[in-house]
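Sequence in, structure out. Go.
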Amino acid sequence: MKIIKNFIYLVLLFTMINCNSKQNQLNVEVYETSASGNHLKKLTNFSSDENQEGMIQVKLLPSEKRQTITGFGGSFTESSAYLLNKISKKNRDSIIEAYFGESGAKYSLTRTHMNSSDFSLSQYSYAPVEDDKELKHFSIDEDKDDIIPMIKDAMKVSKDGFKILSSPWTASPWMKDNKEWVGGKLLPEYYDTWALFFSKYVDAYKAEGIDIWGFTVENEPLGNGNNWESMHYTPDEMTNFVQHHLGPQLEKAHAEVKILGYDQNREYLKEWIDSQYKNEETSKYFDGTAIHWYASTYEVFPEELQYAYNKAPSKHLIQSEACVDSEVPKWKDDAWYWKKTATDWGWGWAPEKDKYLHPKYAPVNRYARDIIGCLNNYVDGWIDWNMVLNKQGGPNWFKNWCVAPIIVDEENDEVYFTPIYYTLSHFSKFIRPQAKVFNVENSDKDLLVTAAENLDGTIAVVLFNEGTTSKNISLSLNDKNVAIQIQGQAIQTLVITN
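Output:
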């Protein structure tokens, strides 16, 4: 009888311990993309032994809130839209769904170009008639066969909708001091005309049923080596244009539309921030700042990002363009995207003092590291460049070949979803607009981690292990935890629910 009583006692004790253990267990779903072949796969077996030695401690601190997320996404370029027109409706629809549908990446923040860019088929302007100061001949007809249909298709499948940020590469040549598409400056006599151009663009797109959320004043105002469409500003010239021309024009006609300054590499961010936010008058019309990542293949420039946030914590800080540049895409070769063999624009000719910033790199690593680094340094939006390119990395009138997350063979009607697509989806699908990024304590400097709490109460944690060996992690939130293993060369998004 005593033996039976002792057995019952042990069973009850085990049951209580097991129940307490389950009560202290975080409820988590894990999605993984890896060099071993997972593509945003929901894992059913991700547990690690909690009692294992050397567990990495990751502590979530949702009470220590940081920035509010605006969104994640990519860009509607003429090149991408043209390619979608060249493939079958089935494949076109699958790409639109993959970017904007509930089963896909659920992009929430996008960009497009005003007038032509390097990723156009030719050079064009919505204001082609010389000295048309009142823009009576303004027309967006160039966009009606490609960019606008692509945006409308995306709107149809997007449940939550998405924001559009529009950027000019240059004003019409007749408005510039050099009368060229490339380089030069806007002539002061056309400042008001150019400001009106932005307002007319909002009207024209609204007539098509498309709302514009915001503008950057100028794509890459420092220039691009005089290669493709560009127009130059100094920081103070841009501030003056916004303060006295663009800002008042949009306030009068479209006060809801945002204005973001700068829109180039982070290394020079401080001097532009200082100009924009010099005082109340200069700050008035700037809703934030846009940045690019091309100054380095690995450096996030945290000091510059923190400086921008601290100078204007209520303003947006949005990464508006990024891509694997100076490369022809590798077709149906996932392994290449995980290997450090890609090169960028600075690999061959960066000044000696900057060469260390441009080593060979793995495209997946570059994306994952940069997005996590941005989120951990107050960036509230992150936008990729072309959504779709072909096997050559175009079409592109300048032959400036690049890589996109989705590559198509338009001649054979084939589509390739690269690992970059899944990398971006780890953020855009699970960290939604209005989510709050919060602090995380992480005991392993080689494990990259970021976390945000969505409006619905779910928490998304993104882990990136770029090393080749697996890591065992003890993830804790308040008094609950979970033990997780992440394999080498892998990205995981952990979705925590109550």
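Check: The chain has twelve helices and 22 strands. The CA atoms of residues 333 and 418 lie 8 Å apart.
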